[in-house]
Design goal:
By secondary structure, the chain is α/β, with parallel strands linked by helices. The protein contains 17 helices and ten strands. The strands form two sheets. Strands 2-1-4-5-3-6-7-10 form an eight-stranded mixed β-sheet, with helices on both faces. It is rod-shaped, with a radius of gyration of 39 Å.
Length: about 500
C-alpha cells in the first residue's frame, strides 16, 4: 500500500486529567492503513526547549507540531505525524513529539519517567533536546536514563537482563543542544560535536559518593546508547523573534542555525534505522500500533513493559488476523465459484488448489513469528473444512441437476407407461430400448458430473418393478428368455453399484 501521509500531527497517547495515559483509536487507524516498515523518531527533553520545531523540520514543514512562546508546556502526551520517508522508498517516517519533561504545572516525575521510557521503547532514533551546554546540570536532567532498567524488561522471567539485551532494543541516541553559545574546545583544541559529547560523558576516577553520583547517568548513557550523535545549534534568531519562530522566513534565521538544522535532518534521514524488535524483526506500521497499545496499557495498569511478552501478544494478534485474512481470500474465491455450481470435480479441485495458494500467500504476508507453524496449520485445517463444505454443496447441486436431467428424459417413457404401450406383445423389447436410449442420453448430458452415476443407479432401481411387470406381461418371450433378461438387468445394476462405490 502507498504511504499514508496525514496532513498534520494527531494525538497518539493522551494524558488524561487523572494522569493516566491512553492510546487514541484514530491514530491506531492511521497506522493500520499505512502497512509499511516504519522509521520512528521521537524527541524528548525539558518543556519549552524547542523540541517541536525540530520535528516540524523533519516533517519538511515550517508548522505542524505546536510551538509555544510562553513558559507553559505546549505538547501534552505524545503526538504523531506520519510522512513518506524522504530517503527510503516504501517506508514511512513516524515522528513522535513528546510532552515536555519537568513541567512545573504537572510536577510528576513518575509521569516524566513513563514518557521517557515509552519514547525509548517506541523509537528507532531518540532525540534528547536540551538548552545551553552539556554540563552537570544537563546530564542530571537526563536522570531518567538511570531508571530504564527498572521500568523496562526484555525477558518475561524474573532474571535481570544483561545490558547487552537492552542495547539490542534501544534506539540510536542524538543529543540536540539548543542555543549553544560556547566555543567547542577541549584542552584548547577545536572539537567536533561528537567529541564534545564524548568529553561531557567522561567518567571521573574514584569511588566516593559524589563521584558515583556524577558517573551514574554518564555510565547509563554510554552503556545503553553506544550509538550516539551530537548537534549543537546556535540561537536561531534574535531573542525577540523566537516567539514567532514558525512564521519567520528562512532569510530571518541565523545561517549557522540553518546549516546545523540541515545537517541534523540529513543525519536523521540517512542513519535512522527501521524500527526493529530485539530479534531483528522489522516493524511495520500495524505492528507498531500494537506495540504502542500494549506498552501504554501495561504502564497505565502499573506494570512494567516487557518486550518478550509484547512480542508473544503481538504474534497472537497478528497471526490470528493472518489466518482470518487467508481464510477470507479462500472463502471469497470459492463463493464466486459456488454461483456456477454444479461444476466438475476437477474444476472445483483445481480452484481449491489455486485459492489455497493465494490464502497461504496472504497469511505469510500478514503473519508474525509463526515459528512453529501453529497458525499455518490452523489455516490449513480451516481451509480443508471449508473445502469439504463446498464439496458437499457442489454434490447436492449436482444431484439436483442430474435428477432434473433424468426426470426430463423419463417424461416420454412415463407417457408410454400410462398409455400401456409396453404392456403389448413385444413391449418389453420396446421398453428396454427406450430405457437404453435414456441412459445413453443421460450419460452424454451429465458426463463428468459429480454423483451422476449414483442418481442413475437410484433411477434404475426405481424402474425395477416396472421393468419386471412389463417383462412378465410380455407374451412374446419364453420363460428362459425372461430369465436371461432379468439376469442382464441385475448385471447392469451391479456394474453401476461397483462404479459408484469405487474410490475416486
Amino acid at each position: 500500500m502507498a504511504s499514508v501521509s496525514i496532513q498534520g500531527p494527531v494525538c497518539l497517547v493522551d494524558n488524561g486529567p487523572d494522569g493516566c495515559m491512553s492510546v487514541q483509536q484514530g491514530a491506531l487507524q492511521i497506522l493500520e492503513q499505512i502497512q509499511q516498515p516504519v522509521v520512528v523518531v521521537a524527541v524528548v527533553g525539558l518543556y519549552r526547549t524547542g523540541k517541536s520545531y525540530l520535528m516540524n523540520r523533519l516533517a519538511g514543514k515550517q508548522t505542524g507540531f505546536a510551538l509555544g512562546s510562553t513558559i507553559e508546556s505546549k505538547t501534552k502526551g505524545i503526538w504523531m505525524w506520519c510522512v513518506p520517508h524522504p530517503k527510503k522508498t516504501g517506508h514511512t517516517l513516524v515522528l513522535l513529539d513528546t510532552e515536555g519533561l519537568g513541567d512545573v504545572d504537572k510536577g510528576d516525575s513518575k509521569h516524566d519517567t513513563q514518557i521517557f521510557c515509552l519514547s525509548v521503547l517506541l523509537s528507532s532514533t531518540l532525540i534528547y533536546n536540551s538548552r545551553g551546554t552539556i554540563d552537570q546540570r544537563a546530564v542530571e536532567e537526563l536522570q531518567y536514563v538511570t531508571e530504564l532498567a527498572e521500568h523496562i524488561k526484555v525477558k518475561s522471567s524474573d532474571e535481570d537482563g544483561d545490558d547487552s539485551e537492552f542495547v539490542k532494543i534501544f534506539p540510536t541516541f542524538i543529543w540536540a543542544v539548543r542555543d549553544f553559545t560556547l566555543e567547542r574546545k577541549i584542552n584548547g583544541k577545536d572539537a567536533s560535536e561528537d567529541e564534545y559529547l564524548d568529553f561531557a560523558l567522561q567518567l571521573k576516577p574514584g569511588n566516593g559518593r559524589k563521584v558515583n553520583d556524577y558517573n551514574l547517568p554518564r555510565e547509563c548513557i554510554r552503556k545503553y546508547f553506544p550509538s550516539r550523535k551530537c548537534f549543537t545549534f546556535p540561537f536561531p534568531t534574535n531573542p525577540e523573534n523566537v516567539k514567532r519562530l514558525e512564521t519567520l522566513a528562512m532569510s530571518e534565521l541565523d545561517s549557522e542555525f540553518l546549516e546545523v538544522t540541515e545537517r541534523f535532518c540529513t543525519f536523521v534521514f540517512n542513519h535512522s534505522p527501521v524500527k526493529q524488535l530485539n530479534d531483528g524483526y522489522s516493524v511495520d506500521s500495524r505492528v507498531f500500533g500494537h506495540l504502542v497499545k500494549m506498552y501504554v496499557d501495561t504502564i497505565s495498569s502499573g506494570g512494567i513493559p516487557c518486550l518478550e511478552n509484547a512480542v508473544v501478544a503481538m504474534a497472537q494478534i497478528e497471526n490470528e488476523a493472518a489466518v482470518k485474512e487467508g481464510l477470507e481470500v479462500y472463502e471469497g474465491g470459492m463463493s464466486r465459484l459456488k454461483s456456477r455450481f454444479p461444476v466438475f470435480l476437477k474444476d472445483i479441485t483445481s480452484e481449491h488448489q489455486r485459492l489455497n495458494s493465494l490464502a497461504i500467500e496472504a497469511f505469510i504476508k500478514r503473519s508474525f513469528k509463526d515459528d512453529d507453524g501453529k497458525y499455518m496449520r490452523s489455516l490449513e485445517e480451516a481451509i480443508n473444512k471449508v473445502f469439504s463444505s463446498f464439496l458437499h454443496q457442489n454434490e447436492q447441486a449436482s444431484v439436483l441437476f442430474c435428477q432434473e436431467v433424468i426426470s426430463g428424459l423419463f417424461g416420454p417413457l412415463r407417457d408410454k407407461l400410462q398409455q400401456g404401450v409396453y404392456t403389448k406383445k413385444g413391449g418389453y423389447q420396446v421398453f428396454s430400448q427406450d430405457l437404453e436410449d435414456l441412459v445413453k442420453n443421460y450419460s452424454k448430458t451429465t458426463e463428468g458430473a459429480v454423483k451422476a452415476e449414483e442418481v442413475l443407479e437410484e433411477f434404475l432401481k426405481q424402474r425395477k418393478e416396472e421393468s419386471a411387470a412389463i417383462l412378465q406381461a410380455d407374451k412374446s418371450l419364453s420363460k428362459k428368455e425372461k430369465e436371461i433378461c432379468e439376469e442382464r438387468e441385475r448385471a447392469v445394476l451391479m456394474e453401476l453399484e461397483r462404479s459408484v462405490s469405487a474410490p475416486c
